[in-house]
Design brief:
- By secondary structure, this protein is mainly beta.
- It has one domain: 7 Propeller (Methylamine Dehydrogenase, Chain H).
- 6% of the residues lie in helices and 43% in strands.
- A hairpin with a 4-residue loop joins β3 and β4.
- The radius of gyration is 19 Å and the shape is globular.
Length: 241
């Protein structure tokens, strides 16, 4: 229960494999999970039972036994995006047919995948520092970037769409930048100080600021201006001791 913190119900998966990816569907009543045995399952939250009809359809996605490193679900509840070792694949869940993804989309493993709120675009970032935007229906590459970061071996990509769906914030540990989600134009790019590796980020509700959490430096949190990328405030857990 999100208000009290009390456990409502617990369900043990019958397949006995670890779940690596988990997310909510747009209706807020169902969840999807992907496990280490390459299965994707849809769960209905009101009773935490598998939705049998949809499970049979989703299981067709597993024909190739591809390793799932990230999964996203479109808001129209039709397409699932599955990321493997450098490949991005889009499936029509209702038919189990692959829509696109035969060609290799990245040359290094992909662990960062973010779908736009309107489900028209898919953003991916690879461990070699490169990233790209794709048309979710056709698989056409809309734009790409990150070649300079690839040379510096930043790895560990994270990304987050703005709430209005117009911009994508991208970080590779110490490197970070903001791109126009439609055109791929770089709005700004910066390198953080030596002692901060970005581990997580979140946009403010009005999209004017971006908060960054650090993996190092005693729990440092930095608040950025979304317009310029400049730090507005820096706080640390040490300040509260």
């Amino acid at each position: 229960d999100t208000e009290t913190g009390a456990e409502v119900r617990r369900h043990i998966a019958t397949r006995g494999s670890r779940v690596g990816v988990l997310g909510w569907l747009e209706d807020g009543k169902r969840m999807f999970s992907a496990d280490e045995n390459f299965n994707i399952v849809i769960w209905r939250w009101d009773n935490l039972e598998r939705v049998q009809e949809e499970e049979e359809e989703v299981d067709k996605v597993n024909k190739e036994g591809q390793e799932f490193t990230a999964v996203a679900w479109s808001s129209d509840d039709i397409c699932a995006t599955v990321v493997g070792d450098g490949d991005v694949v889009m499936y029509d869940v209702k038919t189990g047919k692959k829509m696109w993804g035969d060609a290799e989309t990245h040359v290094s493993p992909v662990y960062c995948l973010e779908m736009s709120r309107d489900s028209k675009r898919v953003f991916t970032a690879a461990r070699d520092g490169t990233f790209a935007m794709w048309d979710s229906k056709t698989g056409d590459k809309l734009w790409e970037g990150g070649e300079a970061w690839a040379k510096d071996d930043y790895a560990e990509a994270e990304a987050c769409w703005s709430n209005d769906g117009t911009r994508v914030f991208v970080s590779f540990r110490r490197g970070m930048g903001l791109w126009d989600g439609k055109t791929g134009n770089k709005l700004w790019e910066r390198i953080t100080d030596t002692y901060m590796w970005i581990g997580c980020m979140a946009w403010a509700g009005n999209d004017t600021k971006i908060a960054l959490g650090s993996w190092s430096n005693d729990g440092r949190v930095v608040l950025l201006s979304a317009r310029t990328g400049e730090a507005i405030r820096v706080a640390s857990a040490l300040e509260r001791r």
